[in-house]
Design a protein that fits this description.
binds NADP nicotinamide-adenine-dinucleotide phosphate; 520 residues; Aldehyde Dehydrogenase, Chain A, domain 1; alpha/beta; Aldehyde Dehydrogenase, Chain A, domain 2; 16 helices; 5-stranded parallel beta sheet
Length: 520
Amino acid sequence: MQNLTSYVQGRWHAGSGASVTLFNPTTEEALAQASSAGIDFKGVLEHGRAKGGPALRSMNYAQRGTMLDALSKAIHAHRDELIELSIQNAGTPRSDAKFDIDGAIGTLAFYGRLGQELGARTFLYDGPGVQLGRTARFWGEHVLVARPGVAVHINAFNFPAWNMMEKAACALLAGTPVVEKPGTPTALVAWRIAQLCIGCGALPEGAFQFIAGSVGDLLDHMGPQDSLAFTGSSGTAARLRGHANLVRHNVRVNFEADSLNAAVLAPDVEAGSDTFNLFVANVALDMTQKSGQKCTAVRRVFVPKERVEELTAEIVATANAVKLGDPSDAVVRMGPLASADQLRDVRAGIERLAKHARLATGGAGAIRERGYFVAPTVLVAADGRNPAFHAEEVFGPCAAILPYSGDAHEAAELVALGGGSLVTSVYSNEQTFLETAGLAIGAWSGRVWLGSDKMAEQSLAPGMVLPQMIHGGPGRAGGGEELGGLRGLSFYLQRVALQGFKGVIAPESMCVSKSAAPTA
Ligand code: NAP
């Protein structure tokens, strides 16, 4: 059995004492164990601050961009091996494993390019400067400078590669050393990626530390220049948000939590049209890709009430056409849930929701003798406002079809009942519907994805997070924000209002950098 080690204070550390076992969710065989016992967590932060931070800050943006590019290439060189590990430890079919691993590779390459484009500068201007005096001699600029702290990243189990590297890419490009802690049940892929990143030699010592297992008392030692970026359930987010030491030092925090994402079908969308087909395909994809264990997966499907039966039949048929089984089989498109805990939670969640709805397909029952499998499950509610469907995220292959009147204002109101989402998709070919629903939903959803015949052929599914666009959402979704090009760096940088002589604050030689500055 593989022993997952942690990379801390410049060496690989094998945890002693009690460990957590990682399983193959298809066969239920034990694969690996992880323990962080014996790590000096205070020392981990000090190491990052003393070694990693100064080394990163001595590099300019272009050099850090080159470093990210090297990490991207190091991971890419082992892509097949990582896909195999993902199949084993996360139960993902090859296509889902690629989704995660290529996401990590692509995001690193994207930020690598951004860094190279920023060139030799070591700080960024934020927006245009302002004249503060009678003449332009007294001038003001907002600039973003690196902070001498460490970024602690606590990640969810569902994207062991992407989740770790999308956070690391932004922090490292900003000049901030990272401590990465993956979700333990699927940590095998993250651990191998950490080995590749450390081994490739592109990172200065202390820039990247990795913890397999619990973070121990790490958060107790964080200080005012450190930052915590968390992805996971809203329950854990709530616990961490109130952590006494984080509160005491006003440690900067970003939370990406769970989300009751929605899809809205407008009444104008005709059966068989490109938009209709896209709607059905995207809902079914969200239910089955990664067995529904995607933070962006649609959980609430709003359909005009007179079309509920028609749409239910289409979605059930499309979801059930997805081949479910052992993810190492090339024809399989949907594997098991990632862990026994997940199986227990998803089954319990389906049972709770099924009390309020008709089961159109699937359900909580066992479908195979071995492995943590759950069938694609479609529930149909009689009342789109039933609070049960706006309160609980079932983090598996489960979605509820909820009727609404077909009015764009009502659709937005129902989406808002979820308390804040990562992404909402709206399907219509009517500008007025898209505009009305889109703008009203915008306050409740970090991303609004507008589907229509005009973009159907070229669109990427709403569940796909792109490094160019922000990821995060208000309220229940955590209230955080990641990625979005250079906006993703702001969390790790200090925005400073500089006031003084324009020739000092915004000299001609710096003008080029202003055009590349974040506008956030
Ligand atoms: P989780 O149980 O909340 O765990 C998330 C991370 O927090 C894991 O690394 C976990 O470590 C760690 N953790 C748990 N308790 C902790 C504590 N007291 N102190 C410090 N760390 C702690 O969530 P999950 O089951 O891994 O992930 C599924 C959830 O994540 C879903 O609700 C999903 O919606 C959400 N998610 C959100 C996004 C987003 O971007 N908004 C993305 C992906 C997933 P261990 O694994 O070692 O317990």
